[in-house]
Amino acid sequence: MKRIAAAGLGIGVALTASAVVASAAQAQTLAQPYTPEQICGSGFQVIESQPLGKAGEARVYFLNNGPTNCVVTLKQGAYVGNSVKISARLQIVGGSTQTDGPAAFKYYAGPLKADPQGGCMVYGGTYGSYSYTSPSTCG
Questions:
Q1: Which residues are CB-neighbours of 81 under 8 A, at least 6 positions away?
Q2: From residue 111, how far is each of 3, 13, 40, 123 by CA, in Å?
Q3: Which terminus of the chain is more exposed, N or C, with fewer CB under 10 A?
Q4: HSE of 75 in the Cβ direction (CA atoms, 13 Å)?
Q5: How many whole angstroms separate alpha carbon 50 and alpha carbon 44?
Q6: Cα–Cα distance, 17 to 9 (Å, whole number)
Q7: Following DSSP, what letter does each residue of 11-26 receive, concatenated?
Q8: pTM higher than 0.70
Q9: Cis peptide bond N-terminal to 102, omega within 30
C-alpha cells in the first residue's frame, strides 16, 4: 500500500512540474520580442507613447530620426499574441494618411513612416475598442 501511495505522489509531482514548465514556456512564447526602435529602424528614438486599453494591453509609439517620423502600436505583456485587433495611423495634416490595421496582428501594427517637411502630423493607434489620437504635432 505504501508503494502505491508513493508512486501516486511521484506522478502528482511529475504532473505539477510538467504544468509549471509548460506555463513558463507559454509565457516565454508570448513575450513581446520587438521594441519600437527595432521596428522603425536604425536611428529612430521614442519621442512619446500612450497606453491603449484599461490595463495597458497595448501602447502606441511616436518615434523620430531627424526628418522622418514613425508610428507603431505594440501589444504588451500577457496580451501579446491574442486575437484583439490593433492598428496604427499616421497623417500629414492637409495631406496623406497611412494606416496599418485594424487586424489581429500578433505583435504590432506599423511601422508607418513619413516626413512632414515642416508641416504638421497627427498619429494614433487602436487596441480593440480603445483608441488614441494625438494632438497636431508640428515642426
A1: 29, 30, 75, 106, 107
A2: 61, 46, 6, 12
A3: N
A4: 24
A5: 17
A6: 12
A7: HHHHHHHHHHHHHHHH
A8: yes
A9: yes
For the record, the C-alpha cell of 57 comes out as 494591453
pLDDT digits (tens), the chain, 139 positions? 444 444 444 444 444 444 434 444 444 457 899 999 999 999 999 999 999 998 889 999 999 999 999 999 999 999 999 999 999 999 999 999 999 999 999 999 999 999 988 899 999 999 999 999 999 988 7
Beta bridge partners of 120: 138
Q: Which residues contact 49 (CB under 8 A, 6 or more apart)?
A: 36, 59, 60, 61, 62
Count Cβ neighbours within 10 Å for each residue of 105-131 and write b for 16 or more, e otherwise: bebbbbbbbbebeeeebbbbbbbbeee
Q: Which residue has the cell 500612450?
A: 50
